[in-house]
Automatic annotation (TrEMBL):
<comment type="pathway">
    <text>Organic acid metabolism; glycolate biosynthesis; glycolate from 2-phosphoglycolate: step 1/1.</text>
</comment>
<protein>
    <recommendedName>
        <fullName>phosphoglycolate phosphatase</fullName>
        <ecNumber>3.1.3.18</ecNumber>
    </recommendedName>
</protein>
<dbReference type="GO" id="GO:0008967">
    <property type="term" value="F:phosphoglycolate phosphatase activity"/>
</dbReference>
<dbReference type="InterPro" id="IPR023214">
    <property type="entry name" value="HAD_sf"/>
</dbReference>
<dbReference type="GO" id="GO:0006281">
    <property type="term" value="P:DNA repair"/>
</dbReference>
<dbReference type="InterPro" id="IPR006439">
    <property type="entry name" value="HAD-SF_hydro_IA"/>
</dbReference>
<dbReference type="InterPro" id="IPR041492">
    <property type="entry name" value="HAD_2"/>
</dbReference>
<dbReference type="InterPro" id="IPR023198">
    <property type="entry name" value="PGP-like_dom2"/>
</dbReference>
<dbReference type="GO" id="GO:0005829">
    <property type="term" value="C:cytosol"/>
</dbReference>
<comment type="similarity">
    <text>Belongs to the HAD-like hydrolase superfamily. CbbY/CbbZ/Gph/YieH family.</text>
</comment>
<dbReference type="InterPro" id="IPR036412">
    <property type="entry name" value="HAD-like_sf"/>
</dbReference>
<dbReference type="Pfam" id="PF13419">
    <property type="entry name" value="HAD_2"/>
</dbReference>
<dbReference type="InterPro" id="IPR050155">
    <property type="entry name" value="HAD-like_hydrolase_sf"/>
</dbReference>
């Protein structure tokens, strides 16, 4: 078992980011963005362009796409509405758990670990994709970007999760893929474990992590 596995197995609570940490949601988000752009009369994102700001709120993602496409700011409300309508009905077609996630969650549940999700995704969308991937019952709390008074990296969402699962920072680990997750964890003095196969890019390596791992399958090895 690697260092990440040892750290995760010695805490009584695990808190996960969602997009890029538990589930690969980028294809669905890209498709919803392109549909919204089309519905509002704009060109789709270039195929080679990564979805920007995957660590942030939907508004931040759409704003970054608008800037890259030179779309007037006045189009924001219509784009957000079009995105929400598409994502509600078609948002989880291609969403997939990262390899090993289900086995890892089962293992943690069997040892009595409390688990939760802290994401910048809108909470209702987070609940839908967790249910679609059949892992929602594992989590005692799901806090979204619209749940707390501020989204990550502000500590408020993580503090709300801790309150809902009746844990203190020293009892928990935050598992995430971006610098936003790392910064959020550091602000509440919580261990951060980095999922390197997510959407974090290079910036996340500028922030401290208690451990890093590439695959959940590595965490299952004894």
């Amino acid at each position: 078992m690697n260092d990440a596995g040892k750290i995760l197995n010695t805490h009584t609570a695990l808190i996960f980011d969602l997009d890029g940490t538990l589930i690969n949601t980028e294809p669905d988000i890209r498709r919803a963005l392109n549909d919204a752009l089309k519905q509002c009369g704009f060109e789709p994102m270039p195929a080679q362009m990564p979805v920007p700001n995957m660590h942030a709120t939907l508004g931040d993602i759409v704003s970054a796409v608008m800037e890259s496409q030179r779309i007037p700011a006045a189009a924001m409300p219509d784009l957000l509405d079009a995105y929400a309508n598409y994502y509600r009905d078609n948002g989880h077609v291609d969403a997939q758990l990262y390899p090993g996630v289900l086995a890892f969650l089962n293992k943690q549940q069997q040892r009595g670990c409390v688990m939760a999700v802290c994401t910048n995704k809108i909470r209702k969308d987070a609940l839908r994709v967790l249910a679609h991937c059949e892992i929602l019952p594992f989590f005692g709390s799901v806090v979204g970007g619209d749940t707390a008074v501020h989204p990550k990296p502000h500590p408020a969402p993580l503090l709300q999760v801790l309150q809902e699962i009746s844990r203190v920072p020293q009892e928990a680990v935050f598992v995430g893929d971006t610098y936003v997750d790392a910064l959020c964890a550091s602000q509440v003095n919580m261990d951060f474990v980095h999922h390197e196969a997510g959407y974090g890019g290079e910036k996340v390596f500028e922030y401290p992590a208690s451990a890093r791992f590439m695959s959940y399958r590595d965490l299952l090895q004894v």
